[in-house]
């Protein structure tokens, strides 16, 4: 443990140094802490990293170029970067029981690109090189290179549909993954909202993807990765899991056995800043046969790594290996379930009827609202959420019909199941007192809404009182 005042002193001193150069930046940093402290944050993808993790990022590691891998850099003088990168990878391997960890990706999307290109290199490029008896792509003839590039661009991916909770980076057209791959998606059962593994198997048999992707950012249930791997194997696909959202639940051993992706997937990607509670960044875990290709993430997809962020990853992963992190992960799920039950008891509709992970999706059509109206009305009332599609969403991806709520952040703050019931009451109060508005021509608006200011104020006050009992960063006093 650091001494009681060390954290306050560290952040206060840092702000003093910054203030001397550009006071508005120092002001914005301090204001961000105030805003975070005052907002009831139910955004499922956010969290609060520890002071040690935050401080590990603000230093001269940021000045260093370190292209390459530990011990094999293109720049001299990387011994200290080697130390932190090796430590972060070691903690990641131990924490997740992974054969290999690559901690350079700057974000979740980068981690996915590294994974896609590692698989393409292993399954498309390497055989083409072998066939041409070339050791390196530079040794290919123009004609062979042209043919290989066409083949790389003609591969298939099967991933979860966006409205069922999948992610843009799993082959959707607005993202580069959708331009790289011919993509098809599997959804969820329209009646239950659950993944129908028989349907996934059927889609895989028909489509024969090179990569089968599992993982989500808005699916409130566990995924059986053993079954998904069997499906991948049955069609010769590489099985990839993007655990960006639920890595903390894997780290904390809430998701084990069939629900732990690491023993089942060929390759696993994640962010480090969501339920894992580390710095903003990404990471790839993989089986030994993909390790060499994954380590080529730079220069394939990435430029120089961010050594200051890798240092923070090492700190956060060390924290996640401590026994109290498992307790934290269990409380995340207990809180999500308490919140879901509190809402259900008050008459809300939830996609799949509840949750067994860290998030839930409220279908707000039963309140006569779109996701957009609900999100804004909650925000007016001091409750920060985000709108989200529901399966077969009648309001489309912009207005949506859902509100996604998640508990990693509030659980870090120390709120428990009793507080979740209070929050369920606040959410239900706002949603049931909000009315959808209409356009000038009398048609229903998907954006306008009316909420009595007195209700919004009262809920805001109650939310503030609730949070006051659970100070955020209690060891950090900037005054
Ligand atoms: C958040 C998320 C990402 C993207 O992470 P960034 O760090 O924002 O790039 C990728 N995949 C899934 C499933 C996610 O939830």
TrEMBL record:
The keyword Cytoplasm applies. The modification N6-(pyridoxal phosphate)lysine is found at residue 274. Its main location: cytoplasm. It holds the Pfam family SHMT. It is found in: Cytoplasm. It catalyses: (6R)-5,10-methylene-5,6,7,8-tetrahydrofolate + glycine + H2O = (6S)-5,6,7,8-tetrahydrofolate + L-serine. The keyword Amino-acid biosynthesis applies. (6S)-5,6,7,8-tetrahydrofolate binds at residues 162, 166-168. Residues 20-125, 154-427 form the Serine hydroxymethyltransferase-like domain. Pathway: Amino-acid biosynthesis; glycine biosynthesis; glycine from L-serine: step 1/1; One-carbon metabolism; tetrahydrofolate interconversion. InterPro entries: PyrdxlP-dep_Trfase, PyrdxlP-dep_Trfase_major, PyrdxlP-dep_Trfase_small, Ser_HO-MeTrfase, Ser_HO-MeTrfase-like, Ser_HO-MeTrfase_PLP_BS, SHMT-like_dom. GO terms for biological process: glycine biosynthetic process from serine; methylation; tetrahydrofolate interconversion. Keywords: Amino-acid biosynthesis, Cytoplasm, Methyltransferase, One-carbon metabolism, Pyridoxal phosphate, Transferase. HAMAP family: SHMT. This is Serine hydroxymethyltransferase. It comes from Micromonospora musae. The gene is glyA.
């Amino acid at each position: 443990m650091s001494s009681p005042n060390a954290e306050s002193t560290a952040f206060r001193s840092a702000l003093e140094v910054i203030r001397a150069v550009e006071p508005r930046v120092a002001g914005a940093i301090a204001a961000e802490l105030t805003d975070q402290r005052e907002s009831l944050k139910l955004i499922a993808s956010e969290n609060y990293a520890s002071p040690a993790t935050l401080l590990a990022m603000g230093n001269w590691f940021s000045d260093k170029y370190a292209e390459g891998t530990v011990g094999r850099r293109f720049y001299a003088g990387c011994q200290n970067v080697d130390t932190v990168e090796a430590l972060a990878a070691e903690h990641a391997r131990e924490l997740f029981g992974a054969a290999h960890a690559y901690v350079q990706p700057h974000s979740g999307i980068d981690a996915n690109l590294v994974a896609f290109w590692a698989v393409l290199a292993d399954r498309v490029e390497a055989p083409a090189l072998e066939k041409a008896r070339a050791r390196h792509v530079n040794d290919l003839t123009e004609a062979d290179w042209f043919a290989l590039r066409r083949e790389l661009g003609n591969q298939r991916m099967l991933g979860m549909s966006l409205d069922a909770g999948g992610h843009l980076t799993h082959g959707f057209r607005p993202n580069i993954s959708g331009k790289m791959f011919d993509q098809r998606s599997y959804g969820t059962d329209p009646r239950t909202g659950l993944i129908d593994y028989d349907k996934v198997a059927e889609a895989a048999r028909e489509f024969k993807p090179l990569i089968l992707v599992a993982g989500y950012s808005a699916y409130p249930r566990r995924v059986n990765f053993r079954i998904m791997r069997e499906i991948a194997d049955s069609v010769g696909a590489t099985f990839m899991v993007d655990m960006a959202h639920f890595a903390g639940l894997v780290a904390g051993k809430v998701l084990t056995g069939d629900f732990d992706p690491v023993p089942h997937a060929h390759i696993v990607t994640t962010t480090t800043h969501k339920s894992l509670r580390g710095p903003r960044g990404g990471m790839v875990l993989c089986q030994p046969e993909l390790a060499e290709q994954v380590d080529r993430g730079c220069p394939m997809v990435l430029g120089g790594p961010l050594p200051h962020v890798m240092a923070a990853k090492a700190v956060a992963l060390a924290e996640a290996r401590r026994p109290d992190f498992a307790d934290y992960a269990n409380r995340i799920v207990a809180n999500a379930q308490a919140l879901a039950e509190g809402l259900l008891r008050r008459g809300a509709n939830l996609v799949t009827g509840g949750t067994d992970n860290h998030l839930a999706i409220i279908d707000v059509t039963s309140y006569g609202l779109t996701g957009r109206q609900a999100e804004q009305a909650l925000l007016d009332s001091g409750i920060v959420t985000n709108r989200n599609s529901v399966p077969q969403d009648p309001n489309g991806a912009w207005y949506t019909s859902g509100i996604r709520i998640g508990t990693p952040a509030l659980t870090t703050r120390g709120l428990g199941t009793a507080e979740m019931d209070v929050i369920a009451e606040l959410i239900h109060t706002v949603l049931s007192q909000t009315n959808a508005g209409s356009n000038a021509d009398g048609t229903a608006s998907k954006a306008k809404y009316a909420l009595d200011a007195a209700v919004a104020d009262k809920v805001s006050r109650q939310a503030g009182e609730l949070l006051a009992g659970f100070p955020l960063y209690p060891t950090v006093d900037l005054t």
